[in-house]
Write a structure and sequence with these properties.
Layout: H1 13-39, H2 47-65, H3 83-86, H4 89-102, H5 112-123, H6 127-151, H7 156-183
Helix pairs in contact: 1-4, 1-5, 1-6, 2-5, 2-7, 4-6, 5-7
Amino acid sequence: MLFSPGWRAPIRQGEVLAVFSLGLVLGGTLSAGVIWLASGLAAPVPAAVRAGLVVALAAVAAAREAGLVRLPLPQNARQIPQEVLMHRLRTGSLQFGFEMGTGVRTYVSASSPYVLALGLLLAHLGAPATLLAGASFGAGRSLSAALTYWARSPDRDALIAVRMPWARNLTALSVLLALALLLL
């Protein structure tokens, strides 16, 4: 479990959440930096072709999220070991967040992060925009943990299950629209 047992613990839950969130943002930023470096390989491809590929990829991802297309996503099936958090909660939370923030250590079930990564790779944007997108990815992942921490509701899981399809579809649509606007 990410959070400490509560008020009796030597480390407060809010502190663990903050360190975990910092790790997520740092991990997302590192991944974006790697994507930005690799995006130079796409530079020789004409901009119109790159834009078309990004929009096509986003459309396929949106169709996958809506259940119209069945397409497996690449994944790393290994989970981050529990021992990371057991012995050193602060540094373990930072490491756990960092590895999740990179998006390559754990399974990402939504298509949007893949569209974002490939869109950034093909769009060949400047370093600040790409790094900001990576940091935003990490911050977005931290929202799940933060909302869980702030909600503390016994029926939270049922509420999330009802809203998850809407959130997933709206996220896919927003990524599609954002990429289309970026490329216009």
